[in-house]
Amino acid sequence: MIASLSTPLVWMPADHRLLGDPGRAMPVVLLGDKYARAVKVVAQAQPVLFPLAEAADVAHLLAGVDGVVLTGSPSNVHPRHYGEAVADPSLPLDEARDELTLAVVRHALAQGIPLLGICRGFQEVNVALGGSLHQAVHALPGHLDHREPPSVPLEEQYAPRHDVTLQPDSLLHRLAGGAPTARVNSLHGQGIRRLAPGLRAVAHAPDGLIEAVEFTGARAFALAVQWHPEWRCWEDPLSTAIFRAFGEALRQRRACRMADARAFAAAPELP
What we know:
Blueprint: E1 9-11, E2 15-19, E3 26-30, H1 33-41, E4 46-48, H2 58-62, E5 67-70, H3 95-111, E6 115-118, H4 120-128, E7 132-134, H5 154-157, E8 162-166, H6 171-175, E9 181-184, E10 191-194, E11 199-204, E12 210-215, E13 222-225, H7 237-266
Parallel strand pairs: 1-4, 1-5, 5-6, 6-13
Antiparallel strand pairs: 2-3, 7-10, 8-9, 8-11, 11-12, 12-13
């Protein structure tokens, strides 16, 4: 189905990878189906890609969309963005994505554009605003191993893993219907170490690790979670609520953008 003119547009910055046999691998840009499908089905918006977009393009491109979703990814944010060296060179990086998404976070929040960060996107939000990450949460004393079990079906990898404690009077707490906790499918190797200025931790894992943040000065929907609400989000009440609330924020921005466009078109020409 082709999106109508009233359908909100959601920019979903892509991953950059090499696909193919060694020596013949080709560079590709990728967007996971599960992320796009959650936006399309539950938020009722149209995902869009801007392949090869650069940081200098961000302000212009954001002016034409109604929201942003920063997806999860096998890659990690390069630790140079928070003043550290790479601890494990075997882990994948995506510096092209870093350069784009860190700029997207800052511009989207400054312009009041709805923003949802998921897993890597959660970490990008924190790093973009001046925070840092633990590069190996599982190596920290007293912390859980939050990584997914290897070599098991996706249904097991994305199964609920642990509870998170929700901060009262937060957006996430309201979306959970006022429940004090929620069970989530958190699977990740890295996590927030130093919380960035302007962010509020609104969910914690049993080991104290931050699992969700909100932007304290947000002018629109601005939420980032370490877990994966996109996974079959229509089957989980909190995941559904997150994407529906995001969709409502998208429609509000869309209405304002269209009203501004009509007013501009109706304005008399200057002599």
